[in-house]
Amino acid sequence: MTHVKLIYNDDSDEGQATSPQDIAAQASAVVAIEDALRSEGFPVSVIPLKTTDRATLDIVVREIKAGGGFIVFNLCEGVFGKSSLEMHVAALFELYGARFTGSGPLTLGLSLDKGLTKDVLRARGVPTADYCIMTDPSEVAERFNPGLKFPLIVKPLHEDASIGIGPGSVVKTVTELRERVVFVTREFNQPAIVEEYIDGREFNIAVFGNGAEARAFPASEIEFDDFPPGSPKICCYEAKWVEGSPFYKKTKPVCPANIPAELNDKLSAIALDAYAIMGCRDYARVDMRLGADGKIRVLEVNPNPDISPDAGFARAAKAAGMGYPKFIAEIVFAAQKRYGQIQAHNPATGGLHV
Ligand SMILES: Nc1ncnc2c1ncn2[C@@H]1O[C@H](COP(=O)(O)OP(=O)(O)O)[C@@H](O)[C@H]1O
Ligand SMILES: [Mg+2]
User: Fold this and answer.
1) Which of 4, 68, 213, 248 has the fewest Cβ atoms surrounding its Cβ within 10 A?
2) Nearest to 76 by CA among 58, 49, 94
3) What is the pLDDT of residue 160?
């Protein structure tokens, strides 16, 4: 079996900036993936890319320059604590000719711009909510597009993990809009994307594989339990990360979603389109909402989603009948096949025809 070099972000040297719980979660995800690969027969080496210790980048470069038929399992979500540099890690692998799992730099970079992503999707016929970009609060008066219908949601253009998204993100008036644009542009030092708010059920689809073999796992629904009355039902930062907040852990992923097969098929078809258009590779997750008008719209494409055992992607793989070790191994097989290293993968035995 091919030697797998598992390269991941290690934030443990970051001092106060990362909580001990986050560091522990990061470490346990890496161990779970390493264990999965070993149990499927891969020789594995685990290589950390530390947040402040720049010498670890040299080690990574040395590892990817090494000869031999290895493949990199890319778990990096950035470098030196900056998610904006996520694409550069993939670019580095590409520059040195190392084969690696997951999406390439263009896809990773494009998805970090929610506006450009929507432009590309829309141009190719994928439905997404109307929006405009505001780089300065003064534009609320001058450039506010009256074609957009309140309520609107205001998000930082380049963030992820619901950073900058809270109950105040959904605005109903021009005054609220201006205040939120001030908050986003000042706090995050980047433009705000102002998008029509889709008040409806939220789904995501995990897509797996490449080309004609890309497949959608069963849809997952994010259910909003016991949200404080009057608060918009969104996966806000507090719901995901702030213990003690009234929103914390009140978003419940349910997979497979309790929906008719026809809706599941529609979500899958849109997700597969978005995946292909964005040039995603091996695995990615597409977030969507179903509006009151019955239309599905894509919120964003995540070409580097969380694949730890307790995350949504693994849950969706399980719902598709793929246990965790198999799912992780299949990522490697999908990447190898893409690079033309293997002709076919025998699903009956889990073995390879080389
Ligand atoms: N246009 C929208 N309408 C309704 N809810 C939205 C919209 N955009 C974002 N949200 C809510 O905010 C959450 C995070 O937004 P998203 O664009 O996926 O950013 P992130 O990259 O931070 O996950 C979504 O999961 C959803 O609950
Ligand atoms: Mg999202």
Assistant:
1) 68
2) 49
3) 87
